[in-house]
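RETRY 2/3 - previous attempt timed out on the joint model. Re-submitting the same 359-residue input unchanged.
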Amino acid sequence: MSRPLRAEIKISALQHNLQQARQAAPDSNVIAVIKANAYGHGMSLVAHALNNADAFAVASIEEAINLRESGIHQPIILLEGFFDADDLLLLQAYSLEPVIHSSQQIEMLEQASFTYAFDVWLKIDTGMHRLGFAPEQTKQVYARLKECDAVETIHVMTHFSSADDQESLSTPYQISLFKRTLEEAGITSTTSLANSAGILGFPDSHADWVRPGIMLYGACPFVDTDIESLSLQPAMNLVSELISVRDVMRGESVGYGGEWTCPETMSVGVVACGYGDGYPRHAPEGTPVLVNGQRVPLIGRVSMDMITVDLRGCDATVGDTVQLWGDQLPADEIAHHAGTIAYELFCNIAPRVPRIEIK
Ligand SMILES: Cc1ncc(COP(=O)(O)O)c(C=O)c1O
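RETRY 2/3 succeeded.
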């Protein structure tokens, strides 16, 4: 029998969440963001589940090639573009669309000597200050791209720094700066601004293409909201089993460092899941774990392959089902306990955890 830990990926939840993005931005095309192995959910599985998305976005050429080779025909956008001139041959061979964010990339395109031309996504930095051209460079770089034989259509995009905070003034500022920049440069290309938080919180940002990521997986893009109020469904249940249940005597400690001491003789359960699987090592004592549908607290330190739970008041035995996060226990809540975000929990699920498609 295999180790019981698995990530169950619910196809219907992925499809429901894509539908929520479409409903929120009915006039926009949807680019499903499936980089980082579809936020840990399994890139090919997710891409095929979302086969009615209008396009997909990934971070690396390798991810894009895997996607093409798995039979995906929609446009594939490379969010970091390409890295050297040799990459252009791969872009051509696999029909990929790079984000263009640097003058080095434009120089490589200008020097490219092949006849095939691809669509590009010109990135303008409206305040994130990560990738992209300054607004005042827009007119000039756009004109240079227009002159490139290797460039077919130019889409223009930007990315929000603080859309997870609906009260922040940064997002309305970025939206208006983006629009003003294009107007002043006389550019009428198709555009893309919105990530999940933009889609659900800032209708002004919808434009021609939206780029949902986290909402597709059923976690919350806002700091102060929950998924129920956004009608999203968790796409991943991280589930395992109790592999040991035993009584530990009052005054004995549990786990590495002996940090947790039993206040009475009590039932302690061991779950097959640890930081080697992606469970956050910094999850503190008291982080909820669901045993047979009942919340019990984590006790002791998270080990590489196991965690320990307090089974007082819980009628549980070896082989009983445990949910670490999922439809009964929001990943956002576990992330909050561990001082991180659901994005990181999902991305950290280790390759050794099988992703099981639930139809
Ligand atoms: C450029 C870009 N667009 C869209 C997204 C999707 O963002 P989210 O997962 O917050 O929806 C990301 C994710 O990091 C991104 O880098």
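The mean pLDDT is 97. Closing ticket.
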